[in-house]
């Protein structure tokens, strides 16, 4: 029997990535309070949030497979989620400027029989950025619905000098690992 994939995410980027690999899926949006996870460890944070999001969606039959994810940016000992305003976005990009940070995405894959959770990390290096570059970027809509206040897939691409790891992990869904793990379901 064919499996029915359900993406438990409101993120348009995660939807786009899954569409790109031409797997049919439906969307259900988890309504969870992300602030309930209080930890200084980015790995633990995305792992736990992916689990909470994935567990929120009910499994209706044994064909259902649910995929959920959570992404954060980690720089030194700080975790950057979505900036709440312009000042926070500016502070995040300033911190990331001229330095290397990590992007962590936690993923949960869940069926009636089993569940599997994993975390991927991608290293991203930013060019040193001028105050004018940062100001013109935070004046756009782009930073505000993205962890770390930038989108590598959009205008934020101009900040990126180098990455090590899966590009799609930065955008919010490490698709090649997801596809590999799905074979076990
Ligand atoms: C670093 C980075 C993050 N992001 C996005 C991916 C995620 O959508 C978002 C991090 O927020 P998340 O809380 O992981 O996800 P979400 O709230 O957008 O969606 P949902 O919880 O419903 O699944 O940041 C980019 O689009 N590009 C980037 O370069």
TrEMBL record:
Annotated site residues (Important for substrate specificity) in this chain: 13, 71, 153
InterPro entries: ITPase-like_fam, Maf-like
Active site (record annotation): 70
Compartments, as annotated in UniProt: Cytoplasm
EC number: 3.6.1.9
Family according to the record: Belongs to the Maf family. YhdE subfamily.
Name the UniProt record assigns to this protein: dTTP/UTP pyrophosphatase
Organism of derivation: Gracilibacillus oryzae
């Amino acid at each position: 029997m064919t499996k029915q994939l359900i993406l438990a995410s409101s993120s348009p980027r995660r939807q786009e990535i899954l569409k790109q690999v031409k797997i049919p899926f439906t969307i259900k949006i988890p309504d969870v309070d992300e602030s309930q996870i209080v930890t200084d460890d980015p790995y633990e944070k995305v792992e736990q949030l992916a689990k909470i999001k994935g567990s929120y969606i009910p499994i209706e039959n044994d064909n259902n497979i649910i995929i959920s994810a959570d992404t954060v940016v980690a720089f030194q000992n700080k975790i950057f989620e979505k900036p709440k305003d312009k000042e926070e976005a500016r502070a995040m990009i300033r911190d990331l400027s001229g330095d290397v940070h990590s992007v962590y995405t936690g993923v949960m894959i869940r069926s009636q029989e089993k569940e599997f959770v994993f975390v991927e990390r991608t290293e991203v290096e930013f060019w040193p950025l001028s105050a004018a570059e940062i100001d013109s970027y935070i004046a756009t809509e782009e930073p505000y619905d993205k962890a770390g206040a930038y989108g590598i897939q959009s205008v934020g691409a101009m900040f990126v000098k180098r990455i090590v790891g899966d590009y799609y992990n930065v955008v919010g869904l490490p698709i090649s690992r997801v596809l590999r793990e799905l074979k076990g379901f």
